[in-house]
Amino acid sequence: MFKNITLFSLQTFSTTGGIQKMTRTLAHALNSICTTNNWNFKLASLYDANSDLMPQYIPKENFEGFNNKRISFILKTALTRQKQDVIILSHINLALVGLLIKLINPKTKIWLIAHGIEVWRPLSFHKRQLLKRCDKVICVSAFTKAQMYKWHKTDPTKCVVLNNALDPFMKIPVTFQKPAYLLDRYGLTDTGPVIFTLTRLASTEHYKGHDRVINTIAGLKRKFPGIKYVLAGKYDHDENDRVKQLISDAGVTDHVILPGFIKEDELSDHFLMADVFVLPSKKEGFGIVFIEALACGLPVICGNADGSIDAIRNGELGTAINADNLLELEDCIANQLSEPLKLNKREHLKDMCLQYFNEQNYISTLQKMLTND
Question: pTM to 2 decimals?
Answer without folding.
Answer: 0.95
